[in-house]
């Protein structure tokens, strides 16, 4: 039986339509095409995509973070809600965090809906802690956002945590006949 490939690579303007489609599925249209284009054009933004070999050019996940001084501000981290279980979500989060490490960033922050317990739980696995709250941050329903913060990205303990999760996820994907291809 041949392996099915999951590919992590940097997004390009050719991926704009797929980004908008995934944004609509995950967030109901949070960003516009112009917004994604600005991120692609910005030297401070890093956009990664998770693609599947099963569907041609099928974008399954997207991660965007800004490099601000020595901090990663994660603006988008999403996996298609139709993708089954959380192992891809966890794996993609690990790979996005590893990209922050390669960028030599020291800390990470993000906002998450206060009601999104699944995402909060996932981020807590990696050591994110609640640092504050932004009242009525989400304009679609005036929901609060929790501000999550992760210091010490470059510390050996955090790197070991990522390596451990990467091994677990890689083993699970291999057992499910998947392989992972990472864009350098």
Explain what this protein looks like in three dimensions.
The chain has 184 residues and is α+β, with helices and mostly antiparallel strands. The chain has a single domain (4-182), classed as Aminopeptidase, CATH 3.40.630. Helix content is 36%, strand content 35%. It has 5 helices and 8 strands; from the N terminus they run βααβββαβαββαβ. The chain has helices at residues 16-27, 33-41, 86-102, 117-125, 156-175, and strands spanning 4-10, 45-52, 58-68, 71-79, 107-113, 129-138, 143-150, 178-182. It has an 8-stranded mixed sheet with strand order 6-7-5-4-3-2-1-8, sandwiched between helices. A hairpin with a 4-residue loop joins β6 (129-138) and β7. α3 packs antiparallel against α5 (156-175).
Quick description:
The chain has helices at 16-27, 33-41, 86-102, 117-125, 156-175; strands at 4-10, 45-52, 58-68, 71-79, 107-113, 129-138, 143-150, 178-182. By secondary structure, it is α+β, with helices and mostly antiparallel strands.
**Number of helical runs?**
5
- Please write the string of helix (H) and strand (E) elements: EHHEEEHEHEEHE
Would you tell me which CATH topology applies?
A: Aminopeptidase
Model regions low in confidence, pLDDT < 50 over at least 5 residues: none
Write down the CATH class: Alpha Beta
């Amino acid at each position: 039986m041949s392996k099915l490939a999951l590919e992590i690579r940097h997004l390009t303007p050719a991926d704009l339509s797929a980004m908008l489609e995934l944004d609509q599925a995950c967030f109901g249209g949070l960003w516009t095409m112009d917004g994604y284009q600005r991120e692609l054009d910005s030297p401070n933004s890093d956009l990664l995509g998770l693609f599947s070999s099963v569907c041609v050019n099928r974008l399954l996940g997207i991660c965007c973070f800004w490099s601000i001084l020595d901090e990663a501000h994660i603006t988008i981290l999403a996996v298609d809600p139709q993708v089954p279980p959380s192992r891809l979500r966890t794996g993609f989060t690990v790979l996005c965090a590893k990209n922050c490490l390669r960028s030599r960033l020291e800390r990470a922050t993000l906002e998450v809906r206060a009601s999104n317990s699944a995402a909060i739980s996932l981020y807590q696995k990696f050591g994110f802690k609640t640092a504050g709250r932004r009242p009525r941050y989400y304009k679609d329903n005036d929901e609060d956002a929790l501000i999550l913060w992760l210091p010490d990205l470059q510390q050996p303990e955090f790197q070991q945590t990522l390596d451990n999760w990467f091994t677990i996820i890689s083993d699970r994907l291999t057992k499910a006949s998947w392989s992972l291809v990472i864009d350098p």
